[in-house]
Design brief:
mainly alpha; elongated; 31 residues; 81% helix; 2 helices; single chain
Length: 31
């Protein structure tokens, strides 16, 4: 997994932001 991330040049901040957005969308869909 880490190899895939490094090849795509995703920073930890970028990855965290995408996960946060994903989580927020799921919560909105549930409510």
């Amino acid at each position: 997994m880490s190899a895939w991330l490094s090849t795509h040049h995703l920073s930890n901040y970028e990855l965290a932001a995408r996960i946060k957005i994903n989580t927020n969308e799921k919560y909105h869909n549930i409510k």
